[in-house]
């Protein structure tokens, strides 16, 4: 699984989401490219706790979280929070 596939899954699973996915560390030989980092911005996060936002991302990734992804570092924002963070 590559970063573009992870982005596609997140964006298709969360309404109006924009995902930017990267590889935060050098892949290790036991879990090649299985460590990902994602910044996800969506109005669907409005009124949700951080835990609920992260659960939405995990739900969008579905079975990939147990088969293709070893670790996922997440940062989630509403569009307003993301604009204020710049």
Automatic annotation (TrEMBL):
Domain of life: Archaea
Coiled-coil spans in chain: none
Pfam families: BolA (PF01722)
Classification via InterPro entries: BolA, BolA-like_sf, BolA/IbaG_stress_morph_reg
Record PANTHER family: BOLA TRANSCRIPTION REGULATOR (PTHR46229), BOLA-LIKE PROTEIN 1 (PTHR46229:SF2)
Similarity comment text for this entry: Belongs to the BolA/IbaG family.
Name of the protein described by the UniProt record: Transcriptional regulator, BolA protein family
Organism field: Halogeometricum limi
